[in-house]
Amino acid sequence: MRKIRLLPVGVAATVAALVMMGCSNTTAPASVKADPLKVENGPFGMTAASGDPVSGGSLTFGYGGGIASFDPASQQYSGTSGGDEARAVYGTLTEYDTKAGKYVPSMADSISANDDFTEWTVVLRDGVEFTDGTPYDADAVLFNFDRMAKSGAGFSGLWASVVKKAVAKDAKTVVITLKQKWADFPYLLSQAPGMIASPKAVKDEGESYQREPVGAGPFMLDKWTPGQNLVLKANPDYWDGKPYLDSLTFQTITTGDQALKDAFQAGGIQGSLIGTPAIVKDYIQPSSGYSGYVRMTNTGSMLLINNGTPSRPDTPGKDINVREAIASAINTDVINQRAFDGNAFPGTGIFSAESQWANDKPTFTYDAEAAKKHLADAKGFDGKIELLYPSAQAEAALTIEAQLEAVGFKVDAKPVQSITDLINAVLIKRDYDLAMYGWPVPDEPGELYTSYLERFGRKDNQLGYYNETIAKALSDFAAADDTAEKAAQMATIQAEWAETVPAVPYNTTAQMVVWNKNVHDIEVSSRLTLDFSKAWISK
Amino acid sequence: MKAAAGKVAQLLVVMFLVSLGTFSLTSLMPGDPAVAILGDNQSPEAYAELRDKLGLNEPLVERYFTWLGHVFQGDLGTSMVPPNEDVTSLIGSAFAVSIELAVLALVVALVVSIPLAMISARRPDGLLDRAASATTFGIMSVPSFVSGLVLIALLVNQLHLFPRVGWVGVTDGLGQNLYHAALPVITIALLEIPTFTRVLRGDLVRTLQEDFVLSARAKGMPAWRIMIFDAFRPSSYSLITVLGLSLAQLIGSTVIVETLFSLPGMGRLVVSSASQGNITVIQGAVLVIAACYVLINAGVDLMYSVIDPRIRRVGA
After folding, report:
1. Interface pTM (ipTM) of the complex?
2. Where is the ABC transmembrane type-1 domain (chain B) (predicted)?
3. For residues B10 and B199, what is the distance between their CA atoms, to the nearest angstrom?
4. Which residues of B, range 265-284, sit inside 8 Å of A by Cβ?
């Protein structure tokens, strides 16, 4: 009798395991060294469509998150958090042309600057209207700028620190005066500040505007069930012609990239955004049969070191010897093998190898003996240090803990339950010694400048680190219009970073948007947001 | 009447204690609505200001009684996190998904387990009983995330019979609704079938040894007729208890299945709200789940008296 009862348990478990093994797409186990993943920035698998674009059809994209609010005044959209949806409804005054590597007008007719990039003139297109029939004019643009500046959220902080004033020159011209020289200012207008909402709708709808947006972009809201899906329909009066697609659906799939991949392959969605290295690797193979765009980011995963914040003025990382010991103790290849099955993109520079800003300045290298020596030089330090990490990254944390302990640190590794808790500890309270943190920053100059400015370019940042040379290099980077000059400033930052060790990068991250081969002409812009205004589906 | 009034009072006390306990525990939860709203690129002052605006700096007790006052007026509040939807409407949508999944799963489980239990009970320790026992123990030993993944691998990835994720409401078409619900329903039903089968089979075996059954057999009544019309009803008390508990439990605890299939039910609503520190939604959802528990259990008590007139007489 017992035999009969115990047997099925084992049989069921074995069958389940075998079925899973047989049916799932497996990745290499941790002990097997996978081939290094070669990924380059830019499009992949694109093939020219045969024939002219055809109208009709519906396109469904699956995302792990999705838009939280359609009110651009309070949001910092990106491709991973509502940027595609908001852009479809509003368009943006400018956009980043990834092929040309520069900002170009989009909803605006033109954008130009004075000689030192402190005054920018935005000229709007004639006759453009919001979908409620009201004019898309200079007053509407200023109304939106003003709301955003007063919101205390989204881009309001950056806007206040950069923009002195914005005025209407005439009904279709807005002049923006900056507090500093910034050659890449159009970046800001390619983001939420450049998404212009109908002032009438904002005033009429009040609090509910965020759920019932009115823009002048290529699509209009049809139906939205937050957390489930969003359906947009084509705007027949879009200034650049009615979109080919009849509708565009964004399906929320919160289970992770594998579920997105399953849904993609089962035909439930025709496109998706992926970040898991092993899945990126699958899709990017020429034989995968998919098209898309890959963006390698700089400083993707960081080991943040508290250099001395008001919450922890005596943190170990205040001592340069401790920071150097940490940098020398970290072996990124080992982290890659143990935590990411060899599928990640290890590196200790603040620019990825694929970055246009990559340079020959030194980065950190693993040297256990040097780490021990630096630790010995840290007078008065007992070796105790706290490491905060997201509970989902336990394997990487365990590896980092082991590497630090191998050179003499006594690590107190503490998991945090959610990303918001990590943000709370690091960004808001600034109460940590070491923290594993996501810091993905793309090459695009506007975003790179604003990200680095917030993170370590200004005083009173989350690292408790300030360096005059880096601050000046960032400022000069912003003021320069010449790529070579910009690259020189980034090289200065890299050199200073290696010298002063504010934090230790250990991985670059890849972000990928992928879609079926029969989907054409999706354009990729800032923050990996997609423009579907000319997208179409071939039969 | 007096007993019913007592029962209602008891239910209200339970719900009050549940809401109080939940509200107290929110201070220990991970997540911060200010971070969920502002993201990770603002100054510490901006977060502090928003927390103040959201009333998160008010004393817990004061916040609780303010909230309770609104609940008595039928207002569960507004979600703290954009798009700041009405909590009642959020819970209404999620509840509709969860209750549909739970009811369909229980129906499927009953349709499978009742005949299986009857076949098993007819000849205890016979070949069919042993086979059924082995199968149910096997299924019972597989957790839902494993069975769900196996079903996905087989029925979605290989055979393309069902959608991988997503939910279509009944109002958008019954066919599409059932098509999207099928796989999650099967996954949940697999969890319940072994329990229902084992419970009913055990009770049936005992009932079939009762004198009235032996008497019916002696009179030459067919075995199937005895099983269905004589033995099943008195053997179903435990099954009804388990059914009631399962229904109440499934409404709020199918989070693994909801997550696996990206379904917008109560479990996922509570978990995602907890990760954001979205207290108003958590409070409302927990209150509704607690109400379901107590109401369903009260319903189960009522069912006993419908099935067994002796209980009705004792109650009177």
Report:
1. 0.75
2. 95-304
3. 29
4. 268-269, 272, 275-277
